[in-house]
């Protein structure tokens, strides 16, 4: 390890916490690295290996069968992960994730027949920029959905309304009402409006999430100070964009920290996001504590503080409707996940019983 300079990883987010996670692997002659981009059985990494030009990308092989599942059953690698590689540039271990942005890989509708699964969008993220275009119809429900995703990850969300220079009237107060406890900014990456304020709020690893056409890549380029990610114009008819970003990719920010640009999200299903929903709809959670019944469903129960707030106008009906919708979806997916886990456990035990019967038969039916 004498030829390895771990300070070279500092621009990619290396700190004392990750160093502590790496210590148990120190004696195995493994080298820490950060995943910059995944590409099936290989990945681009930042690693302190001696090369003619350290800034050039290093490729590493990924043997997924050798990577252990975490307690939350999130397996495989994604952009932002810290790993340990051998000197042949093969990933040998996955360091613990501090945070992870996870979405359901199905639509989340109760009539869907798709197999429930999840996808990790980015790992070890500290700040999530929830991006939406301010020059079109601002979908408050989608912002709430993305906020639940961001809060559940363990990172700090910021709502960014992009393309402020093209907008006639940005409903920023409506967005703030839909994002309690979250900073909401209107910015223009092209015109520089609000960019200094945004840059001052960024911390650690920053991930951008939002729909295609939300201006994520343009915003990322402005924060990086270079045209790193491809951009394209949205369609004039419906203001929708094309997927110009096709991979999740990590880059160091010039002022410190790192940035992960992500492809546009069309489907944003929640995955085990009860805590994220509680943070997103904090005022409803607070009102629920004042209801007469602890299991109040906020439908027609007497003494319901939530319905009283709706009646007085203190709580918009739209907020409660959105909370109900996302809660039902999250509960449904959680139930599917539990059923799937039970089925997988039953399959394992069935295999064990089958093997025991085979061994018993080979022994001539005699127990020992």
TrEMBL record:
Protein name in the entry: Small ribosomal subunit biogenesis GTPase RsgA
Species the sequence originates in: Nocardia terrae
Cofactors required: Zn(2+)
Signal peptide: none
UniProt cross-references to InterPro entries, sorted A to Z: G_CP_dom, P-loop_NTPase, Ribosome_biogen_GTPase_RsgA, RsgA_GTPase_dom
GO molecular function, one term: GTP binding
Lineage: Bacteria, Bacillati, Actinomycetota, Actinomycetes, Mycobacteriales
GO CC terms, sorted: cytoplasm
Alphabetic keyword roster: Cytoplasm, GTP-binding, Hydrolase, Metal-binding, Nucleotide-binding, Ribosome biogenesis, RNA-binding, rRNA-binding, Zinc
């Amino acid at each position: 390890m004498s030829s390895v300079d771990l300070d070279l990883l500092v621009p990619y987010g290396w700190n004392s916490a990750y160093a502590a996670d790496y210590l148990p692997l120190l004696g195995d002659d493994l080298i820490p690295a950060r995943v910059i981009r995944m590409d099936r059985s290989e990945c681009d990494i930042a690693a302190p290996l001696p090369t003619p030009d350290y800034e050039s990308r290093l490729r590493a092989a990924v043997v997924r069968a050798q990577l252990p599942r975490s307690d939350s059953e999130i397996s495989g690698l994604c952009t932002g992960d810290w790993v340990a590689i051998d000197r042949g540039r093969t990933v040998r271990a996955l360091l613990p994730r501090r945070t992870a942005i996870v979405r359901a890989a199905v639509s989340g509708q109760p009539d869907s027949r798709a197999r429930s699964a999840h996808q990790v969008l980015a790992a070890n993220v500290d700040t999530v920029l929830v991006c939406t275009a301010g020059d079109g119809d601002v979908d408050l429900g989608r912002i709430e959905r993305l906020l639940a995703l961001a809060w559940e990850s363990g990172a700090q969300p910021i709502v960014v309304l992009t393309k402020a220079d093209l907008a006639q009237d940005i409903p920023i107060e409506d967005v703030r009402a839909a994002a309690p406890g979250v900073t909401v900014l209107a910015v223009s990456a092209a015109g520089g409006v609000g960019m200094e304020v945004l840059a001052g709020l960024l911390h650690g690893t920053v991930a951008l999430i939002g729909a295609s056409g939300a201006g994520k890549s343009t915003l990322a380029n402005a924060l990086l100070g270079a045209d790193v990610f491809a951009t394209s114009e949205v369609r004039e008819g419906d203001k929708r964009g094309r997927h110009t970003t096709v991979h999740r990719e990590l880059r160091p920010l010039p002022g410190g920290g790192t940035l992960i640009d992500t492809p546009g999200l069309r489907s944003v299903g929640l995955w085990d996001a009860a805590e994220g929903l509680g943070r997103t709809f904090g005022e409803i959670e607070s009102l629920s504590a004042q209801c007469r019944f602890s299991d109040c469903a906020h439908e027609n129960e007497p003494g319901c503080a939530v319905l009283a707030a709706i009646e007085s106008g203190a709580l918009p009906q739209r907020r409660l409707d959105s909370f109900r919708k996302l809660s039902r979806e999250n509960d449904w997916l959680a139930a599917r996940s539990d059923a799937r886990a039970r089925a997988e456990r039953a399959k394992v035990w069935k295999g064990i019983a089958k093997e025991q019967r085979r061994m018993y038969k080979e022994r001539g039916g005699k127990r020992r």
